[in-house]
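Hi C.,

You asked whether I'd gotten around to modeling the 293-residue construct. I have! Everything is below, sequence then structure, no commentary in between.
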Amino acid sequence: MVSIVVIGPGAVGGTVAAHLARVQPEVSVAARTPFDVLEVESDAGVLRESPTVLTDPIGARAVDWVLVATKAYDADAVEPWLSRLTSATTTVAILQNGVEHVDRFAPFVPREQLLPVVVDIPADRSAPGRIVQHGAADLIVADTERGRAFVDLFAGTGIHAHTVESLPTAMWRKLMVNAPGAINAVTLQPRLDLSRPDVERLVRSTMQEVVEVGRAEGAQLSKDDAEAIVAALARSSGGHLNSLHADRLAGRPMEIDARNGAVVRFGRKHGIATPVNEALVGLLAAVDARPAT
């Protein structure tokens, strides 16, 4: 029997934990706030599960799988859980934004035990244990032994987990999708009006910088990828807020550094100018809820 702990049962982690609990008998969640029922509402109906809720790492035991679904900037806060939940045989799957999953957790867990996961789960949490899932849930991992074992965990669930040959390509493509969200957060507009030439140029410039930097990092990105994302944004109703936008509205810290900040950082590494992303990072840093360091 496989034992699983999901750290961070927010919108993404809670959705994942609820779907896993349908088919896996040993699913627990590590949370700051306890709750009795994990409820995920979607077009397919309401999913209600009652996984064990852990609120203190003291007393936690090592498990087969740890799925980290916290914000990217919370890696240090996860360390006390990892020290209790992991052994030499544990796989730590990192369900976060950005492209630096392994580097964030390498100080705490051997790199060979870390499994980066690209996440596409449009969901919002309204209260502890209460989530609305707005569309299909998709998880992408590398085609490795650990990656294939991760996919097997989700067999029979409502989440589509699958492997790809080039995970860096999937990670940077997701960053292309996420990068324009900084514009939503700066303007506080839930939907970008791409019928305006100036807005469309800004969106395209933001993503083109990601394409250039991602290619330098080995990702296989093309103009067609950017066009597909622009088309999808143009069709979007704007009903589900980009997480940067939602976090700013709620007064929460934003994942600026893991998203647009990564574009700037890797751009400097390769000598590639990223003025649009750099400007967006500066604007959002000025209103971020976290104190400057």
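If it helps when you're writing up: The CA atoms of residues 192 and 233 lie 8 Å apart.

Thanks,
B.
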